[in-house]
Automatic annotation (TrEMBL):
InterPro entries: Benzoxazolinone_Detox_Enz, MoCF_Sase_C, Pyrv_Knase-like_insert_dom_sf
GO MF annotation terms: catalytic activity; molybdenum ion binding; pyridoxal phosphate binding
Protein name, UniProt field: MOSC domain-containing protein
Origin superkingdom: Bacteria
Domain named MOSC: residues: 24-158
Family matches, as SUPFAM superfamilies: PK beta-barrel domain-like
PROSITE patterns (UniProt xref): MOSC
Pfam families for this protein: MOSC
Length: 222
């Protein structure tokens, strides 16, 4: 499990909107603070950033899938991630897990719900929906201990959360709640164990999804 690439992004003007989704400034070593990388810009502070979503990570194993889907070559950071990691993915990473990179200690906080800007930036109308359906969303970290890390360092697992609710589990639930719950009867018990880790927004989204009241319109094709 390695940090293969590390990058930040600057706000770009796409005429109809602005976004720092593409991370194309590559770092070999960096300081990571409570709010993530100081060099990383955020266009939409309402829905992105903050201590709960300080650092975004993605599995490099997905890049071949997305290159085929989009029909183009992608550089690391094209999925919006700060950390491009090998040896881990949504099935192996669980909410609440604690990881170390260099002297930085990170806790997995939540999956990324795909934003409609992903489709707009990559000019592929069904990209957001495809990420949602596949569950290959990437995940956010909160920073438990500030420090420095560098490309090529090992990702160390310090603690596995006892709830054992993977990022993929949460994505599968969100995609088709009834199907997922019929096969995972203890899901609600696991969520209760994670109330201190999941953000209030995520908890609210889960509650609304359980009631079939969550607005899924932004997941649809443009």
């Amino acid at each position: 499990m390695l940090l293969v690439s590390m990058q930040v992004g600057k706000i770009k003007d796409y005429k109809k909107f602005k976004s720092a989704f593409i991370k194309d400034i590559y770092l070999q070593n960096a300081f990571v603070g409570i709010l993530g990388f100081s060099e990383n810009e955020i266009a939409d502070m309402k829905n992105h950033g903050g201590s709960q979503k300080a650092v975004f990570a993605n599995a490099i194993s997905h890049y071949e899938i997305w290159e085929k889907f989009l029909g183009k070559k992608l550089n690391y950071g094209a999925m919006g991630e700060n950390l491009s990691l090998s040896g881990v993915d949504e099935k192996s990473v669980c909410v609440g897990d604690i990881h170390r990179l260099g002297s930085v200690i990170l806790q997995v906080s939540e999956p990324r719900l795909p934003c409609v800007k992903i489709s707009k930036v990559h000019q592929k109308s069904d990209f957001c929906a495809e990420i949602f359906e596949s569950g290959l969303s990437g995940w956010y970290y909160r920073v438990l201990q500030e420090g420095t890390c560098k490309v090529g360092e090992k990702l160390e697992i310090l603690e596995k959360n006892s709830a054992k609710l993977s990022i993929m589990d949460l994505n599968r639930f969100f995609y088709k709640p009834k199907d997922f719950l019929s096969q995972n009867l203890n899901f609600k018990e696991k969520i209760e164990k994670l109330r201190d880790i999941l953000s209030q927004n995520w908890q609210k989204s889960i509650d609304l999804r359980l009631k079939n009241q969550y607005d899924m319109s932004y997941m649809q094709k443009l």
